[in-house]
Amino acid sequence: MNYLSQLTESEMQYICSVIPLKDSICYFKMYPKEFAKIMPGFRAKSMKDQAKVSALLFRYHDNNFISSFIEKHIKNWLSQIQEHVAKMEENGDSRELAFLHTLPFSFFSNNVGLYFKLINEKYPEEYISLLNASVTTTKKTFEQQDKLKKELEIKKSEIRNLQLDLNKVKSDLEKIKLNERKMETKKLKRNLANLEKLKSTMQSDKKTIAILESQIKVQEETVNSFRKELDKIKKDNQQLEAKIRSELKEQHDLKIFEQQTILKAKCPRNMVEFKEFLGYNLENISIPINSEYYSLLIKYLSKILFQGLPIVINRCVGKTFIRCIANTLIGQTTVKTLIFDNDISTDNIHNFLTSSDRVVCLDNFIGNYNETKLLPLFDSHRNKIIFLTVAYDRTMYYISKEFLRYCKYLNLNRIAVLSTNVELTEDPSTFEEIDSEFHGAPQENRYASLLRGILGELGFPRGLIEQKCIAISDEQDLCCILAFDVLPYCVDVLQIAPYHTSEKLIRYAGNTGNCPYKNLLKRWFEQ
User: Fold this and answer.
1) Comparing C-alpha atoms, which of 224, 226, 220, 248 is closest to residue 137?
2) What share of the chain is helix, strand, coil (3-state, %, to 5)?
3) Higher pLDDT, residue 46 or 90
4) Measuring CA to CA, which residue among 88, 80, 89, 83 is closest to residue 108?
5) Is 140 exposed, middle or buried (0-12, 13-18, 19+ CB in 10 A)?
6) Taking Cα atoms as reference points, which of 410, 422, 478 lies closest to residue 448?
7) How far is CA 183 from CA 158, 188, 194, in A?
8) DSSP conformation class of 120
9) CB-based contact 266:435 (threshold 8 Å)
10) Is the pLDDT of residue 134 over 60?
């Protein structure tokens, strides 16, 4: 992410001013040739003034050599703050308290608003101002405490030294007492004189110790005063935190309400261009454009992807296919996937879908999770393209056919290239999307009637038959649903032979039938 393009001139000056001098010097030494281009005649080790180095970084922040250095620091700072905030939250802090335990010690301690701007989190100006004041106060408090601790350690060290001197004096006195019987009277008198002098010194030291103890007491009272002030700040912060938490909850509830009321299925504004770029991606993974099924696949995908219904697909072919869809629509080849776990809850699934991108994948839920609990979640996230991957198509046999009224079954098992681990190298693309409302065929037509007859002979439920028939407007729609839904469902899931079960299918797509894709359907599904 390019952070520099988001910064104003004053914000850029701030960033340059807080980058440590040693980091800048080290970077210049690593790349002496690049440094010589912007500072000819100078050596990196001669740059010892923080202000001059900060000015140099600001003056050449548009230079790629300098901009990449600044970008890297910003990225590292943001990552470190994010990790520390997350750790504080894991230890029980609220998000606001986690910020107060982190930002005072970060490079954004004097500009909290800039931090939220760079991570693209928007808060009210009042919130930013309060948080900035709290961070500043916290930072000053810790600095004062550190200063007092250092002074206290110095005083304690002085006391220890005095105690050592006192111990040494006492030791000398003991030696004098042991030797006084052996000393001559003259030596004894001299030693006694020396002893008096030492006693005088000791009295002086005791006075010094008393003074130091008095000073320590004053310092302790000062520390206690700061502690009381800090407790007051904490109490004020708790009140502020409660107020902010209440406001955030209201905003969160309002956001959830808005999401639940306005989320609709989406589709590209320019569907023709989407089909063209989807073709580029399919061709990139070696699906031949001259194959019989190519045009059918493009048309069928452009219909089922944007109806707001989840799509059931085999995991083996799904991995490569889903990456193609994501690369075409949102410019990403990595798709977030939630894998089934026995301890997973609907809240876990809801949070995953809410936080994920446009294209997501739920793996191994079909057959392992109560599908009736998934249906309300799908309704709440119609703006997502949700793929439900299954390890075995036969698993669908044990799920009610009525479940297919709430999702789309997509079977691409007979396109061999999708079963291989093909590297996708096509350039990513993105599309502006608009609300999508699925409208079926405006009136009954002979292709819908034909499909109704075939599905009836294959044993599909009446409600599911009508739902599939309403999507049939022409013959190509009929061939699409036969090739990628109905017939592979019969063969791979129900494990029946459709060409031995439906007379209407034989008359239409058999040897003497009029179906333009009968050779493809026979090759794939005639047994």
Assistant:
1) 226
2) 65, 5, 25
3) 90
4) 80
5) exposed
6) 478
7) 36, 6, 14
8) T
9) yes
10) yes
Indicate the DSSP class of residue 394.
Answer: G
412 within 8 A of 386, measured Cβ to Cβ: no
Number of alpha carbons in the 13 Å side-chain half-sphere of residue 204: 7
- What does DSSP assign to residue 391? S
DSSP-assigned letter for residue 40: T
Taking Cα atoms as reference points, which of 503, 513, 487, 508 lies closest to residue 293?
A: 487
Whether residue 279 contacts residue 328, with contact meaning beta carbons closer than 8 Å, is answered with: no
For residue 451, the tally of other CB atoms under 10 A from its CB is 25
Distance CA 256, CA 121 (A): 18
Largest CA distance in the chain: 142
pTM tops 0.90 = no
Q: How many residues does the chain have?
A: 527
Residue 176 near residue 195 (C-beta atoms within 8 A): yes
- d(Cα 466, Cα 454) in Å, to the nearest integer? 12
Q: How many CB atoms within 10 Å of residue 311? A: 22
Distance from C-alpha of 328 to C-alpha of 266, rounded to nearest angstrom: 15
Question: Which pLDDT score, from 0 to 100, does residue 225 have?
Answer: 83
Of 167-176, 346-355, 438-447, 465-474, the least confident: 438-447
